[in-house]
Amino acid sequence: MDYLVYNLADLSAEAADFSILLPDEQKEAERRGPRYALIRTLLRKELARRTSVAAQDIHFEYGPHGKPECLLQHFNISHSGDCLCLAFHHRPIGVDVERIRERNFKALAARFMAPEQFEQFCARGCTQEDFFPCWCAAEALVKHAGDTMWNARHYPFLYRHGRIQCVFDSAPQVCLFTPMPGYCGAVACSLP
């Protein structure tokens, strides 16, 4: 398992290379803006480096919930604010990064956490320090499975002493990390 973190504020939008983007990505970049084109450029160049396939020749399939997949290399993408993370593994992988900011933590937790997770979260005081690691872990788990946050309750885990412990069958390993100051991250991958 490997992941790369980029501070998008340090990269120029001119670094986007439209010549390696496929027509659907170019159209999406027109709709979403230059940052999308930059992210897709970084992804394609890294996939090309890892697979020895020309960046413009890499094709993606999309899962039922929109997760992009490359038959040559498992990967996942997450970005929040200025932070971008590209994660790679030889098996399915999910990654999430989040900018730490004020939110209605209890309402979000009640909506997406499994009952035992929510109970633990409330018992610990519904703090930002507990919310973001749990949120990132939940996102990484559902992305690993190619699922959506609406089904996050199907991937229960416990958060103890800064670590995630999954409590469902065939659970991947989840590791928390700090991608940049002011951000939280988690990566989920199946180990051999």
Structure summary:
This protein is of the alpha+beta class and 192 residues long.
Strand and helix map with partners:
Elements: E1 2-7, H1 23-32, H2 34-51, E2 61-62, E3 68-69, E4 74-80, E5 83-89, E6 93-99, H3 105-112, H4 115-123, H5 128-145, E7 157-160, E8 163-166, E9 173-177, E10 183-189
Antiparallel strand pairs: 1-5, 2-3, 4-5, 6-10, 7-8, 9-10
Helix pairs in contact: 1-2
Description:
This protein has two domains: 2-93, 4'-phosphopantetheinyl transferase domain (Ribosomal Protein L22, Chain A, Alpha-Beta Complex), CATH 3.90.470.20; 94-189, Ribosomal Protein L22, Chain A, CATH 3.90.470. It has 192 residues and is of the alpha+beta class. It has helices spanning 23-32, 34-51, 105-112, 115-123, 128-145; strands at 2-7, 61-62, 68-69, 74-80, 83-89, 93-99, 157-160, 163-166, 173-177, 183-189. It is built from five helices and ten strands.
Terminus-to-terminus distance: 11 Å
CATH homologous superfamily heading of the largest domain: 4'-phosphopantetheinyl transferase domain
Average pLDDT metric = 93
**What is the SS-derived class?**
alpha+beta
What are the defining features of this structure?
single chain; 192 residues; alpha+beta; Ribosomal Protein L22, Chain A; three-stranded antiparallel sheet; 10 strands
